[in-house]
Amino acid sequence: MSVLDVRDLRMRYGSTDVLTGVTFQAHRGEVLALLGPNGAGKTTTIEILEGFRIRSAGEVGVLGVDPARGDEKWRARLGIVLQSWRDHRNWQVRELLAHLASYYEPYRTPWPADELIERVGLTEHANQRIGRLSGGQRRRLDVAVGIVGRPELLFLDEPTAGFDPEARREFHDLVHQLVDFEDTTVLLTTHDLDEAEKLADRILILAGGRVIADGSADALSRRVNAAAEVRWARGGERFVHSSTESAAFVRELFAQYGEEISDVEVRRASLEDTYMALVRGVESGAGEAAVREFEGVTR
To answer: What's its membrane topology (predicted)?
Structure first.
């Protein structure tokens, strides 16, 4: 059974079509990153999957349940980390997490508060009032609130906004632990393409109301005819050349200069290059053929 099974999802607000046929699946223990420009429909898609918004059309299964009909037992299987949480400034960290855990107990075994606090790096602040936490510490608490019920499916909305580099790395480690040891499925939305590339098994790019790309960062880069950067050294000098046929260029380089060539490095198009090329192609209409080809492969 797919953890997420979305087929031809559509959403209309008045006369405006926000989602025009979104289709994708996710399996247990998989990390998906949902990328797209502002207004692409990412938030709408997530809210439909979470059961907070009723879709206009299409079929949606979340943990085998239509989210429009999900009950409390079903909701207890989900974890949600929003961009910001309610202001619990007068609660202590441990007190809040223990209280929230009690809501899950009729349905599943939540994290013990102290173990969870340690996992998100707030042990030194366990008895501190939330109103006195720094922005980064409160963001860690947001993550703890989202996973307190040991979710089978975790939604992360810009989860590391406000994190410093060390906290970001620790959070990435936590996500990998949830996936590796808890078999959690994660759907992540982020504008940080480096984070998406590090965390996600698959990347979905949403534009024009539909999924225009679905695959690993490496697989997506191969769909775009973007130039790779070839770097090499010869005679004590360093050179750089961009080419859409990097393998052929390197062969010609060695054929011409042989052993004079050293330190050859080929840098493929980054996820950012790929993302921008695909989105701009759809927005300009130039990428419609590629999108139709992708949709034909996935059906």
So the answer is: Peripheral membrane protein
| CA 230 – CA 247 distance, rounded (Å) | 9
CATH architecture of the domain covering 4-217: 3-Layer(aba) Sandwich (3.40)
**Longest C-alpha distance within the chain, in Å?**
73
Stretch (H or E) spanning 155: strand 153-157
Helix, strand counts (H, E) of the chain: 11, 12
Convert the pLDDT of each residue in 94-115 to its tens digit.
Answer: 999 999 999 999 999 999 999 9
- The model's pLDDT over 185-196, given as tens digits with 9 standing for 90+, comes to 999 998 888 889
239 pLDDT tier (thresholds 50, 70, 90): very high
**Whole-structure pTM value:** 0.81
CA distances from 18 to 55, 60, 203, 228 (A): 11, 16, 20, 34
All structural domains of the chain with their residue ranges = 4-217, 227-268
Residues in the chain: 299
Mean pLDDT of 114-125: 93
